[in-house]
Write a structure and sequence with these properties.
Blueprint (H helix, E strand, L loop, with lengths): L1 E8 L2 E7 L5 E6 L5 E8 L8 H9 L10 H6 L6 E2 L2 E2 L3 E8 L2 H16 L5 H8 L1 E3 L2 E3 L1 H10 L2 H13 L21 H11 L5 E7 L4 H11 L20 E7 L12 E10 L3 H15 L5 H8 L5 E2 L4 E3 L4 E9 L4 H18 L3 H16 L5 H14 L4 H4 L2 H13 L3 H11 L4 E8 L3 H19 L4 H17 L25 E5 L6 E7 L5 E9 L11 H8 L9 H11 L3 E9 L7 E12 L3 H13 L6 H21 L1 H10 L4 H10 L1 H9 L2 H16 L3 E7 L5 H8 L20 E5 L6 E7 L8 H23 L4 E7 L4 E7 L5 H17 L4 H15 L10 H6 L3 H13 L2 H6 L9 E6 L4
Parallel strand pairs: 3-10, 11-16, 18-22, 23-27
Antiparallel strand pairs: 1-2, 2-3, 4-7, 4-10, 5-7, 6-7, 8-9, 12-15, 12-16, 13-15, 14-15, 17-18, 19-21, 19-22, 20-21, 24-26, 24-27, 25-26
Helix pairs in contact: 1-4, 1-7, 3-8, 4-18, 10-11, 11-16, 12-15, 12-20, 20-21, 21-27, 22-23, 22-25, 23-24, 24-25, 28-29, 28-30, 28-32
Bound molecules: zinc ion (ZN).
Length: 919
């Protein structure tokens, strides 16, 4: 490995290495304890069989030195806080991060062995890719992609890509089209691996405080035997001479009014990604055009009611070699008008430019995104760097974040610069796709028809011994899945390497105000890179029960209507100029001692550069005190966008909705959580009358201001108590202890029918409060059930994308659940029941216990963003003693202890189902 360059910048010291094969390695050495590794391969394609995606699943399934499912088994044998594999449009990445150096080494060996020497067995291909079984196609990726293409937004995005980049790698679906996946040939996949997973076609990114000497040796051991090969460049798109219009039909969104579901977008092919300052410029223009209520496109498209929300493709995308900018709406009722509105707005901005405050507000958001260091910062930086390198960009230029922003500031100061670029990329650009998608109620049926045609054609081609051949293979697969797992070849991190102490964040408490309305202010002093983070917790338990479902909408409305002093446009711009946004949300907090009690709050969160704290608290105060509740038109927009956002989440996060539904009548906390975050909230939102609701929200806000508030601030210097005190003086409440109403536990089976082709199934039991000695045991039980039984039964055998037991110790709820599950709910519920029988009749080995402990401790010790240090104890009120007691319980637990808590799963439970209808 040859060192090419060393440079220093605010990210750390950057080293660039090159191997004789051409492998390019960027290492950023700095003080971050969370060490990141990512290896990426350029995986361009020319069909829709999902080749790179299926290969990604297979790579981690077995390798030269690690035979039995190393990736999934390492999830519970490693201390890493992130392990994954990702398939993009032109690259496949294998990232992990961990704070432990032994663990880093273990994972590095496994990742490299899997990438460069995978087994790629036929049986794994059948399990993860596709197989023919019981007269149907099956397979993990096959089912995963069926779920993806039945989601209207994903479908729209896939088609968008296909029509904007025809004839190139990007014109194909790298995830795989379920109608093409079963045509993928096993040998083609192996051939593809030999070509693409070669060091000459790969890139490494590492980040953190670890010494790289050992890791570098390990990498070299794995790749030194390779000789360089020629790598084809990515084929670029020839520019169109005329715009293109496409009208297609797609799936119906079961959650939305069918007349509100047309999606329309104009997409412009823009610059090559590697031209860095052009990429910065177009991203700047994109945000100027689209972000916030003051933006030209928001006014032209959303405020004008031409659509309910932006289309899912909207924004600037650098996922392809040549980038694109898309602008569009969903809930579109007149595409011609939308198109005209977009071009009119572009024309106006070309003629008038943008006000300097607006440009400044976007530049400040860019700066904050560089300073706001979340725990995943290194990970995301790595992905973006690798993508830039795959697009032939110079990573050292890319990583010079501060200088790039400086250069951008200079560019936009040139008179007419932005206008000139608007003309170049939008008004004078002929590579424009006009894509309209209307929902077709028959879409699902037509897809099923094409599936059965594909199946019939497949069956017609089967020779006489074809069926028995498949039957034999399927039997072999089942035999392999049932084999007792021997994990002796996989390393495990010893528990002795993990601290028995719960990590704690020291905070200082201050009191402000009179005794009656005393505001508690908690302060955490830490290195925040010059940012301040402020959280308020407002008690809303006094609000009438029937009004509580309105609170999520009220939270959204706080920053969506404008105030008595400022129009929405001015308010929004001020917020962007001074802060990282003002966010309000509803928060239910389970009581650590008693499942019959819980807290009910509105949480306000804002962040800003420390020199802007004063203006930011003024803005928060204005929002809390002076919202203009007469803005009917703005309110309508706000209501519709919340509704559409939430309904779109159902397909992607169906398991959360199913679990919330199942839990909804089990504890008072879960009931409220369902009202605020579950399908009940969505149905409630649909049912309200927007005409009368606004006045109601105004009265509710008066009531909220009569509540109590607590504050939490994370900063580098002393908190400005006078400013926080002034802000909190909005709330006049006196502290009284509210009793929760008596609650009757009730068991039920509920379903929400949607045409998805797959299910999300949940079965939920009540456990114990957080401080109960059984809580750690239940948490371990959930981990054992998942890794030892459910993963094999539901994912490997059943083809569900995910299946697990989850114990949430804070809420005391024990869930069984599946994600994108093709099995039919009865079989899935039956598997949940069998899991309980299985654990009762099986011995739990020491190794399994140790894995479960590691799995739980890893979750407890996941790195926390600087801006969130100490936040959890502020929000949930859990004491350090309680956290330590839970942690001790994990370390101490024995096999016998696990048996003691199985009885919780033999009591009555509730079921929640999204997809099929419950019979
Ligand atoms: Zn996948």
């Amino acid at each position: 490995m040859r060192l090419l360059t060393t440079t220093k910048n605010p990210l750390g010291t950057i080293y660039r290495y090159r191997h004789k094969t051409g492998l390019d390695w960027i290492h950023i050495s700095n003080s971050s304890k969370n060490n990141v590794f990512t290896i990426g391969f350029k995986t361009t394609i020319n069909d829709n069989t999902g080749l790179p995606h299926i290969l990604e699943h297979l790579t981690l399934a077995s390798s030269r030195n690690y035979k039995k499912n190393p990736f999934f088994n390492m999830l519970s044998r490693s201390y890493s806080n992130f392990m994954n594999a990702l398939t993009g449009d032109d690259l496949t990445m294998y990232p992990f991060s961990t704070v432990n150096s032994q663990d880093y080494e273990n994972l590095l060996r496994i990742y490299l062995d899997c990438c460069f020497y995978p087994t790629l067995s036929k049986l794994d291909f059948m399990q993860e890719g596709w197989r023919y079984q019981n007269g149907a196609f099956q397979g993990v990726v096959y089912n995963e992609m069926k779920g993806v293409v039945s989601d209207p937004s994903s479908f729209f995005m896939i088609e968008h890509q296909k029509h904007l980049y025809p004839g190139t790698n990007y014109g194909y679906n790298s995830g795989g089209d379920p109608l093409a996946i079963p045509t993928l040939n096993y040998d083609t996949l192996k051939q593809f691996h030999r070509q693409k997973y070669h060091p000459s076609n790969s890139f490494i990114f590492t980040f953190g405080d670890m010494d790289m000497e050992r890791p570098m040796q390990i990498v070299q051991e794995h790749i030194d035997s390779f000789e360089p090969i020629h790598v084809d460049p990515i084929s670029t798109t020839s520019r169109w001479t005329d715009p293109k219009s496409v009208h297609l039909t797609g799936p119906v969104d079961g959650m939305l009014d069918p007349s509100q579901q047309d999606r329309f977008a104009l997409s412009f092919m823009t610059n090559d990604h590697k031209d860095l300052m052009e990429s910065y410029t177009v991203k700047l223009i994109s945000d100027l055009l689209l972000d916030g209520a003051a933006s030209p496109m928001y006014k032209a498209l959303i405020e004008s009611k031409l659509g309910t929300d932006y289309a899912p493709t909207t924004g600037y995308s650098t996922y392809s070699y040549t980038t694109h900018q898309s602008i569009g709406v969903q809930g579109c009722n007149n595409p011609e008008k939308v198109q005209k509105a977009i071009f009119d707005a572009l024309d106006t901005t070309f003629r008038n430019g943008f006000r300097s405050e607006r440009i400044e507000s976007v530049l400040r958001q860019f700066e904050m995104s560089v300073r706001h260091r979340v725990s995943m910062f290194g990970m995301h930086l790595g992905w973006n760097t690798l993508r830039f390198m795959i697009h032939d960009g110079n990573p050292l230029l890319f990583l010079d974040l501060d200088n790039n922003l400086k250069e951008l500031r200079q560019l936009v100061q040139q008179p007419g610069y932005i206008q000139h670029k608007i003309k170049q990329y939008f008004l004078d650009n002929n590579h424009v796709l006009k894509l309209l998608m209307t929902p077709d109620p028959e879409h699902g049926r037509k897809v099923s028809e094409r599936e059965s045609q594909l199946l019939k054609a497949f069956e017609a081609k089967l020779t006489k011994d074809g069926v028995p051949k498949w039957e034999n293979l399927n039997e072999e697969l089942i035999k392999k899945q049932n084999e007792k797992t021997d994990l002796s070849d996989l390393p495990i991190l010893s528990l002795a390497e993990i601290s028995p102490q719960t990590s704690s964040f020291d905070t200082t408490e201050y009191g402000i105000g009179s005794a009656a309305s005393n505001v508690k202010v908690l302060h955490r002093r830490t290195n925040t890179n010059g940012m301040d983070y402020l959280y308020l917790k407002i008690d809303v338990s006094g609000i009438a029960e029937e009004d509580k479902p309105l609170l999520p909408l009220l939270c959204r409305a706080l920053t969506s209507l404008g105030t008595k002093k400022k129009s929405l446009e001015v308010l929004d711009e001020q917020i962007r100029l001074n802060s990282g946004g003002i966010h309000a949300s509803c928060l239910a907090t389970p009581d650590p001692f008693d499942l019959q009690r819980h807290g009910e709050y509105i949480e306000i969160y804002t962040t800003c550069l420390q020199e802007q704290f004063s203006t930011t608290t003024d803005l928060v105060q204005e929002v809390l005190k002076e919202v203009d509740w007469s803005k009917q038109s703005e309110f309508l927009t706000c209501w519709k966008s919340l509704l559409s956002e939430m309904s779109q989440r159902v397909v992607g996060e169906g398991h959360s909705f199913a679990m919330s539904m199942a839990a909804s009548k089990l504890t008072p906390y879960a009931e409220l959580n369902e009202k605020w975050n579950g399908l009940s909230q969505l149905k409630y939102l649909e049912s309200i009358d927007p005409e009368t609701t606004l006045a109601k929200l105004s009265t509710l806000m008066d009531e909220i201001r009569a509540s109590t508030v607590d504050a939490f601030i994370v900063s580098e210097s002393k908190p400005q108590l006078d400013l926080i005190g002034n802000l909190c003086s909005v709330f006049k409440g006196s502290r009284t202890v509210k009793k929760n109403a008596p609650f009757q536990e009730f068991h039920q089976r509920q379903s929400h029918v949607m045409d998805l082709g797959v299910n999300f199934v949940a079965r939920t039991f009540v456990g114990v409060p957080f401080t109960h000695p059984d809580a750690p045991k239940l948490k371990l039980l959930s981990s054992i059930l998942t890794s030892q039984y459910l993963h094999t039964e539901l994912r490997e055998k059943g083809g569900a994308y995910g299946g697990a037991a989850r114990y949430a110790p804070k809420s005391g709820l024990f869930h069984f659940m599946t994600y994108r599950d093709p099995l039919g709910y009865e079989r899935t519920l039956n598997t949940f029941s069998k899991a309980i029988g299985w654990i009762k009749s099986h011995e739990i080995t020491n190794e399994v216990m140790e894995e479960a402990k590691l799995d739980v401790l890893k979750q407890l010790d996941a790195p926390v963003d600087a801006g969130q240090e100490g936040l959890s104890s502020f929000l949930y009120g859990n004491t350090l003693e309680a956290e330590q007691q839970f942690r001790d319980g994990i370390f101490r637990a024995t096999q016998e202890n696990i048996r003691e808590v199985i009885h919780y799963l033999e009591q009555e439970s509730s079921v929640g189902l999204i997809g099929e209808s419950l019979q």
